[in-house]
Design a protein that fits this description.
Blueprint (H helix, E strand, L loop, with lengths): L2 H73 L4 H24 L6 H19 L2 E4 L10 E7 L9 E6 L1 E4 L2 E4 L1 E6 L6
Parallel strand pairs: 2-6
Antiparallel strand pairs: 1-4, 3-6, 4-5
Helix pairs in contact: 1-2, 2-3
C-alpha cells in the first residue's frame, strides 16, 4: 500500500475521533449554557418583579409626600407639641406599613413575620396615642376610604373592600388620611 494512502486513512480516523470529542464538548457546553440561561431567566423574572415593586413604591411616594404635607398641615394646630408628636408617629407608622405591605403574603418568610410584628406594634402605639388606624373592612365609605382600584370577587357584594393598600388615620375625631383600598366591582357595571 502506498505511503500517502496509509497516512491519509490514519489521519482521517484521528480527525473523526477528534471531531467526536469536539461535538461532545459542544453538547456539554450547550447544556451548561441552557442551564445558565434558565437560571438567568428565573433571576430576570425576580428582578423584573422587584423592579415593578420599586416602580409602584416610587410612584406611590409622590402621593405619600402630598399626604404627609396634608397630615402635617392638619396636625399643626394650637396644641403644637402633641400634634407634632402624633404626626411623627403617623409618618413612622406609614414607613413600617410600606415595608409590611411589600413583604405581605409570604407567611413562611421570617422577614414577613418580623414585618407583621413591627406593624402590630406600630398599630398598638397609635392606639395608645389616641390615633385610630382605618383599615378597609366591609362596604366602602368614602369618608374613610379612597378607592385605589377595583377587582372582582363573585362572592362579595358590589362596593365591598377586597384589600387595603394603605391604612388611613383618625386623630382627634378628624380623618387625617383616608385608607387606600381595592373595591369589588362587577365587570361592565358603571
Amino acid at each position: 500500500m502506498p505511503r500517502h494512502i496509509a497516512r491519509k486513512g490514519m489521519t482521517g480516523g484521528r480527525e473523526r475521533g477528534h471531531g467526536k470529542e469536539i461535538i461532545g464538548e459542544l453538547k456539554r457546553l450547550s447544556s451548561r449554557i441552557n442551564l445558565l440561561d434558565a437560571k438567568l431567566a428565573g433571576q430576570s423574572n425576580t428582578v423584573t418583579g422587584m423592579a415593578a415593586d420599586l416602580r409602584k413604591l416610587s410612584l406611590g411616594q409622590k402621593e405619600v409626600n402630598l399626604q404627609l404635607e396634608e397630615i402635617n398641615e392638619l396636625l399643626e394646630a394650637p396644641e403644637d407639641g402633641e400634634n407634632k408628636l402624633a404626626a411623627a408617629l403617623i409618618n413612622t407608622t406609614e414607613q413600617i406599613e410600606n415595608f409590611y405591605r411589600l413583604v405581605y403574603g409570604d407567611e413562611a418568610s421570617p422577614l414577613y413575620r418580623q414585618a407583621a410584628m413591627m406593624w402590630e406594634a406600630a398599630l398598638g402605639n397609635l392606639r395608645r396615642a389616641g390615633i385610630t388606624a382605618i383599615e378597609g373592612e366591609g362596604i366602602i365609605d368614602l369618608r374613610l376610604h379612597a378607592p385605589a382600584g377595583t377587582d372582582f370577587d363573585g362572592e362579595k357584594p358590589e362596593g365591598f373592600i377586597l384589600k387595603t393598600v394603605e391604612c388611613g388615620f383618625i386623630y382627634k375625631d378628624k380623618v387625617v388620611k383616608r385608607a387606600s383600598v381595592i373595591v369589588n366591582k362587577r365587570s361592565g357595571i358603571q
